[in-house]
Design goal:
Elements (H helix, E strand, L loop, with lengths): L5 E11 L7 E8 L4 E3 L2 E3 L6 H13 L1 E16 L2 E15 L9 E5 L1 H7 L3 H15 L2
Parallel strand pairs: 1-6
Antiparallel strand pairs: 1-2, 1-4, 2-3, 2-7, 5-6
């Protein structure tokens, strides 16, 4: 049972820049337990669909509702000695506001280049590029 893949899902959450410059900003979450910056994501509950999990995790971690868009690449890696598979979607933030919690204590809205630089894991940086490509081809 220990070899079973951990299924998780998340979103690359974005919004149109509030500065009216036609740009976008990407939301990153800071997890104090790991002291890292990442995209909002989390483990799927039993019988939960991947997209439902991704939207739930965005709301739980960022306080924002969102509209899912393009499917982004799936991340596969080993975490705590077990294989993990994280499904991702592009998602545009709509309403909501952040409240710090135990799991996520801060969020940042950053332009894509700054978000790419702030992300802790290289696999998360590739998702920024995938988001930009998906938005460009939409």
């Amino acid at each position: 049972m220990r070899d079973e893949t951990v299924l998780a899902a998340g979103c690359v959450l974005w919004r149109r820049s509030p500065y009216g410059d036609e740009g976008i900003e990407i939301c990153l979450v800071h997890r104090p337990k790991y002291d890292d910056w990442s995209h909002p994501k989390g483990k799927q509950k039993r019988l939960e669909k991947s997209l439902d999990c991704a939207l739930r995790e965005v709301l739980e971690e960022t306080g924002h509702h969102c509209v899912p868009g393009a499917r982004l690449p799936t991340a596969r890696y080993v975490a705590n000695g077990r294989p993990k598979q994280v499904s991702y979607w592009a998602a545009e933030a709509t309403t909501g506001s952040f409240t710090p919690g135990e799991e996520v204590d801060r969020i940042l809205w950053l332009p894509p280049a700054a978000a790419r630089n702030r992300l802790t894991q290289p696999r998360d940086r590739m998702l920024v590029d995938a988001l930009l490509e998906a938005l460009h081809s939409a």
